[in-house]
Amino acid sequence: METILLAQAAGALFGLLAVILGAFGAHALKKKLTPQQLQSFETGVKYQMYHAIVLLVLAFNLGFDSPLDRYIVNCFVWGTVLFSFSIYGLVLSDSNGKKLRFLGPVTPIGGLLLVIAWALLFYSFMASLL
């Protein structure tokens, strides 16, 4: 039950923040960021929104009766947090002249968790066919 709530709450929160951060990037940061920084920021927003939608779809479609379902949701949640929010931190700190370099390795870890989530979801679908 708590995994369903995690997927629903994280999906809704990620969607909400993606809209807010997307508007913030398009309006408030447009003059402050370089085109490359703005593109990176937008990448974080896009991936965050994509995975917000995925979490909401999963929350209403997965049975959440196996540990695999929990692994999928947790990988999507933590992957999104690490991937998108590390990009925001890198871009905003770089624009202020004090780049938080320790966030550099965090982004690919988040990306890897997202890849694992998608692979587990694929496996889940394939296993149900057999």
From TrEMBL:
State the GO CC annotations.
plasma membrane
Topology class, membrane: Multi-pass membrane protein
Top-rank taxon? Bacteria
Record's keyword annotation contains Chaperone: no
Q: Where in or outside the cell?
A: Membrane
> What residue intervals traverse the membrane?
47-64, 71-90, 102-125
Asked if the Swiss-Prot or TrEMBL record annotates the protein with the keyword Transmembrane helix, the reply is yes
Q: What is its main location?
A: membrane
One of this protein's Pfam families, by short name?
DUF423
Keywords, A to Z? Membrane, Transmembrane, Transmembrane helix
Please state which protein family the record places this protein in: Belongs to the UPF0382 family.
What protein is this chain from?
Uncharacterized membrane protein YgdD, TMEM256/DUF423 family
Question: What's the source species for this entry?
Answer: Flagellimonas flava
